[in-house]
Amino acid sequence: MKKWLVAAICLISAGLAPALAWAEAGLSFEQGWVRAVPPVSTNTAGYFMLHNNTDQDRVLVGVSSGVAEVVEMHTVIEADGASTMQQLKQLVVPQQDCVLFEPGGNHIMFIGLKQPLNTGDKVTVTLTFQGGETLDVALLVQKGPQGQQDMGHGHHHHH
Amino acid sequence: MSRSLWQVIVSLGLCVGMCFPALSWAGDLPINTKLGGDFTLPSTRGESTSLSDFNGKAILLNFGYTSCPDICPMVLNRMAAVMNELDDERAKVQPVFLTFDPARDTVERLQQYLKYFGDDFVGFTGTDKQLVEVARQYGVIAIPQKSDSAAGTLYTHSDYIYLLDQQGRVRALYSKSDSISKMVDDIESLLED
Lengths: 159, 193
Ligand SMILES: [Cu+2]
Fold this sequence. Notes:
The structure holds two protein chains of two kinds.
Chain A: H1 3-16, E1 27-35, E2 43-52, E3 58-64, E4 68-79, E5 82-88, E6 91-93, E7 97-101, E8 107-113, E9 122-129, E10 134-142
Parallel strand pairs in A: 1-10
Antiparallel strand pairs in A: 1-2, 2-7, 2-8, 3-6, 3-9, 4-5, 4-8, 9-10
Chain B: H1 3-13, H2 15-18, E1 23-24, E2 31-32, E3 40-43, E4 46-50, E5 58-64, H3 71-85, E6 93-99, H4 107-114, E7 122-124, H5 128-138, E8 142-145, E9 154-157, E10 161-164, E11 170-174, H6 180-192
Helix pairs in contact in B: 1-5, 3-6
The structure holds copper (II) ion.
The site of copper (II) ion has 5 residues of chain A, from strand 8.
C-alpha cells in the first residue's frame, strides 16, 4: 500500500477513535482480528493497526501466541501479477505513525493451530519490541475485516 | 513439485494481463480467446470430473492451496460473498477451486476445506503434471518457494477469480481490488444472455 495512504488511514482512524487511549503516550492497537478458517485448516493470519504515539521509532522484533505452534510476521510482495509471502524478522513502527497489518499485506501468520478457532473467540498475541518492551493485542476471530467484504488491499496497478 | 516445471508457466502467466487485447465481443463481457479450456481431473464430485460437466452454468474459478494462511482464504471468502449475493440465481453458478499443491491437497482435504465456504464449492486436484497443464491454460502463476518459515512450502502465486460463461469460455478476470457487486453484476448479465 502506498505510504501516503497508510498515513491517511492512521490520521482518519485517530480522528474516528477518540475512545482509544490517545492521551496515553505509547504503543496502541486497534481493529484487531484473526481470519476464521475451515476447521481442517491449521494455518491462518491475524491483522491490526499498530500505533506508535511516542517520539521514537519502535522496532517490532517478535510475535508469539499460545494458539499455534509457531507465529511469524510476514508481508506480501506483489510483482508481475503474483504475490509472494516473505517472513519479516523485524518491522519499524515510525514515531507518531502507524503500521497496518491487513489481508494481502503485512500479517501475523499462525502456523499449526493447536485447535480450531471459532468465530467470536479472542486470540492474544504478544508483540515484542526491541529493548524488551511487550504489548499484548487481543484479536477477534471473524470471517472478514469488521464484517465488511474481504477486499484485500487496494492495489490498482494491474489494470 | 519440480521447480522447473512450474517455471515454464511463469512467462505464460505474465500473459494474463496482456492477453486482454485478444478479445472478441459478445454482450457486455468480452470472450477471452487466449485463456481457458476444458480439463478432466479428480474432484470432490468424483474420480474424473470435467469442467465441461458444468456447462449450462456460469463458473467462478480460482486457483490456490489450502495451507495458504492469507490470500487464498481471502479469495475464497470473496467467492463465497458473491455466491451469497446471488440468492435464487445461485443454482445457475458453479464455484470451482483448483489446487496447485496436490501433495497436501487431497480430494478429502479439499472436501473438508471447501464446504466451509459453501456446500456447492467443487475442488479439483490431480498430478503435478496435470495441474501445471491447467495452470498453463489459464495463465496462472504458481511457484513453490523454499523458505525458512515454519509454514513449509509457500507459493508465489497469482490470485485472479475467473468468470466463465455457460459454455466454459473465460469472460472476465477479477483481481483483489474488484468489488463483490461488480462480480455479481457481471454474473447476472451473463445469466440474462
Ligand atoms: Cu501468509
